[in-house]
Structures are given as C-alpha cells and as structure tokens.
Amino acid sequence: MTETWDSAGHIASSRYRLAVCRYLSEHGSGLPSRIAAETDLAQPHVSRALSELRERGIVELLVPESQQKGRLYGLTDLGELAYERVALDREADVTVVEAGEFPAPEMSSELQNAYGDALRAIAWCEPLQTRIRFFERSLLDRYDEDTVKTLVATLTNEEAIDQPLEDLPIGGPELVAFAIDDVLIVRVPLDDGVKLLVSLDAAIDVTLSDLRDSCRQMTAAVLDS
C-alpha cells in the first residue's frame, strides 16, 4: 500500500496535479482543454500535470495512443485510491508563520545554521493546528495554501502508510523520510502528539537519525513549557 501513499504524496505536492485529479475524480474523465477551462488553469500546466501523473500510473489515456484529437484521460484504480487518500486528509488547519511566530524559534535557527540553503521549510504539526515556516521564499508562490494544507495533512497522517515503517527502505518506527520530486521531507515525532516536518533539498547528504536527535533536543524545552 506504500505505492498508494507515494502516489498520494505526488498528487498532493502540486496544485496542478491536485486540481487535475480532483476534476477527474468528480467527472470520471476529461479532455485536457476541458480540464483547463473548468479549473481555470493554463492548458500547458494541465498537459504537464497529466504527463507527470501518467508516468506514475495515476491517470491513463482512455483512447488509442495513435489518436491525436479527443485525447480523453481518467484516473486509474491506483489513482482513485491515491486521490481518495488525499481528499480524506485535506482538513488540516495550516498557518504560514515568520521566524518569531514558530513554536520552537531556537530550533528553527539551529536548523537554518546547520543546513543553510538546503533547508526549505519546517512544519510544527499539532493535532488541531500546523504552523509552517518557509526558508525558500519561492515556495510561497509554488505551493498555494490549499496545496500546503493537503500535503501537510497527507504527510502527518500515519494511517496513510499501513506497511510497518521499519520495513521501508528509509525510516524506522520513530522516523520516516519521504522523497517527493526534488524534496526530502523527514517526519520527526515529538512528544504530546506533535510531529515535526523538515523539508530539505533532496540532494543533501544528511544522517536522518542525527537530524531526529537534534530536533528532539532543541524542542525539549518548548514541549516542557
């Protein structure tokens, strides 16, 4: 079932892929031009999203490959399961904050010092509220509020992964890393139901257990208070 989760993460990490899958889920199938018109997206964005989703087996072409006009697309069985997973996880209350508003500002500064430009964002995820700080300002344009909400909710929902974490290539019962596009996201469970998401450039060479231990040490005072 990790394939379903991986596909859900792929959908959730792009507002274009999310919009296309939402349209196909609601309408059953769609032409690129119709999807673009009814979602208010530029057709090149829709075409690229369909191509990316098709490469991952999330959508499929419903007409012969040789047909150049009327290229109708629909969700695959995997795509339907993955989008259902995403749709169930879209109720998170997510707030974008600046440095001083983050619950653990010292940790935020230490991570920035440790990982520099490779650090993209951190999210402090409580059961009813998530606060996220972006270090790469372009991400605010790349990910709109709805996409951020969907992605955070999907990443923090442990029910989305029903395979034991210790059996995954990366991670363990208390730590798991997700690779989505060019981003490495590490989920660090803290105390009192708090989960920390640390987003890094996927090319960075980092020891995940060291990152986990550092985050726990730096947030201990915050959690105790």
TrEMBL record:
GO terms for biological process: regulation of DNA-templated transcription. This is HTH iclR-type domain-containing protein. Residues 19-60 form the HTH iclR-type domain. InterPro entries: ArsR-like_HTH, DUF7522, Tscrpt_reg_IclR_N, WH-like_DNA-bd_sf, WH_DNA-bd_sf. GO terms for molecular function: DNA binding. It comes from the Archaea.
